[in-house]
Amino acid sequence: MTALDLDPQDRTREQHAWNWYDWANSAFYTTILTVLFAPYMISVAGKAAGCVDADDTCSKTVDVLGLHLAAGSLPFYLTSFATIASAFLLPVVGAFVDRSGRKKWHMAGFAWAGSFFAGLLFLMKGDNWQIGAVVIVLSSILGGCSLVSYYAILVDISTEDERDHVSSRGWAFGYLGGGLLLLLNLVMVLGHDTFGLSKGMSVRLSLLSAAVWWAGFTIIPVLRLRNRAPQGVVREDGGLFARSFGQLFTTLKEMRAFPMTLTFLVAYLFYNDGIQTVIYAASTYGSKQLKFGDSVLIATILLIQFVAFGGALFFGRLAARYGSYRSILWGVFAWMVIVVVAMFLPEKNVALFLVVGVAIGIVLGGTQALSRSFFSLLIPRGREGEYFALYNAAERGTSWFGTFVFGLVFQLTDSYRPAIFALIVFFLLGAFFLLRLDPRRGIEEAGNRVPAVV
């Protein structure tokens, strides 16, 4: 059964159920990966490295499998490693998903496993950074695996003309849910004395709450979404896993027949790496480089979250009028301006920091939501899981080259300013490949119907 076979009311009900997983998993990406994990990991690793004050920028090193890594760069290297591992694993997961009629259960299984490991971050305290290093990698990989099925379901429940609206609403819903939990957690962290907690305990409880939120709200789409039989899969011999590997190799060979799809994947790899690194490094940059206290960072982070809710909806309307392709391109140009301005922000200038936060919020949700829906138009029917697995290797929370460059530049310069500016290269390369893309040709080559506005 395809989306066109469903009654419009049935489609709408499933689309609303689908949006709940954005609400669920955003807690992990917002509270843990974007805000609390990196500064807390730097503090914990800094104690192990022997920094005088682990709350300050620490360039002393810890030993990771024989490598001496700066405590201030450690969380960025961990994220990079998680995505490198995902690049090998997710395409096989995607091929498996394409051959299964149980997409929603694959989504839920990976989500619940990922939330379990994320909950173990509660055990990271003192100078025991090792457990945090292991579980953040595992939870990030499993979160990426869950998104493969989640994104593939989008094609089952929406027509080509509905994709931008459904995807934008999902991202907006995710930012609203992630922002709500973040608000509660930051109140607890900032007012930890009021609640009779140490700062470390308040952070650990916040990390745990995000894991519980992720697991709990995943129940809603599981109950309300339907499973559907696979369609148009590649014929391969052997068992399910053998056929999944076979389909992966076949797709990699056949991607030459879809040059526009490949061009967009390359563009997305670059500009999304830049976006994810800006998001991931924002709290660290604000606290360690610009010397803002918790209150300013909290206000700015929450501002970004709730502005991003409106930004995602705004870009959805922009796409309805001008098309998702052009809207994405305009968003990438806006990110270039943001990175340049961020590099020159003076220390402790709250007004300018908030202005940059508003700008990030406007383009953040929009570029991500429209990238997801636009890519769905470039995928041959029946190959959604596998193609979205390739796409998701560069998705939020699994950016690798950007975080690696950010961490490396900091280690070489002992400053986060050149590290943040270095990210402009990713947006320049993303725009370069987007400008080489013919969206109408790509949609037609994939065998999909071209929407009224591309």
From TrEMBL:
<feature type="transmembrane region" description="Helical">
    <location>
        <begin position="203"/>
        <end position="223"/>
    </location>
</feature>
<keyword id="KW-0472">Membrane</keyword>
<feature type="transmembrane region" description="Helical">
    <location>
        <begin position="20"/>
        <end position="42"/>
    </location>
</feature>
<dbReference type="InterPro" id="IPR050495">
    <property type="entry name" value="ATG22/LtaA_families"/>
</dbReference>
<feature type="transmembrane region" description="Helical">
    <location>
        <begin position="74"/>
        <end position="93"/>
    </location>
</feature>
<feature type="transmembrane region" description="Helical">
    <location>
        <begin position="129"/>
        <end position="153"/>
    </location>
</feature>
<dbReference type="InterPro" id="IPR020846">
    <property type="entry name" value="MFS_dom"/>
</dbReference>
<protein>
    <submittedName>
        <fullName>MFS transporter</fullName>
    </submittedName>
</protein>
<dbReference type="InterPro" id="IPR024671">
    <property type="entry name" value="Atg22-like"/>
</dbReference>
<feature type="transmembrane region" description="Helical">
    <location>
        <begin position="387"/>
        <end position="410"/>
    </location>
</feature>
<dbReference type="InterPro" id="IPR036259">
    <property type="entry name" value="MFS_trans_sf"/>
</dbReference>
<dbReference type="Pfam" id="PF11700">
    <property type="entry name" value="ATG22"/>
</dbReference>
<keyword id="KW-1133">Transmembrane helix</keyword>
<feature type="transmembrane region" description="Helical">
    <location>
        <begin position="173"/>
        <end position="191"/>
    </location>
</feature>
<feature type="transmembrane region" description="Helical">
    <location>
        <begin position="327"/>
        <end position="345"/>
    </location>
</feature>
<keyword id="KW-0812">Transmembrane</keyword>
<feature type="transmembrane region" description="Helical">
    <location>
        <begin position="351"/>
        <end position="375"/>
    </location>
</feature>
<feature type="transmembrane region" description="Helical">
    <location>
        <begin position="105"/>
        <end position="123"/>
    </location>
</feature>
<feature type="transmembrane region" description="Helical">
    <location>
        <begin position="295"/>
        <end position="315"/>
    </location>
</feature>
<keyword id="KW-0813">Transport</keyword>
<feature type="domain" description="Major facilitator superfamily (MFS) profile">
    <location>
        <begin position="260"/>
        <end position="454"/>
    </location>
</feature>
<feature type="transmembrane region" description="Helical">
    <location>
        <begin position="416"/>
        <end position="435"/>
    </location>
</feature>
<feature type="transmembrane region" description="Helical">
    <location>
        <begin position="262"/>
        <end position="283"/>
    </location>
</feature>
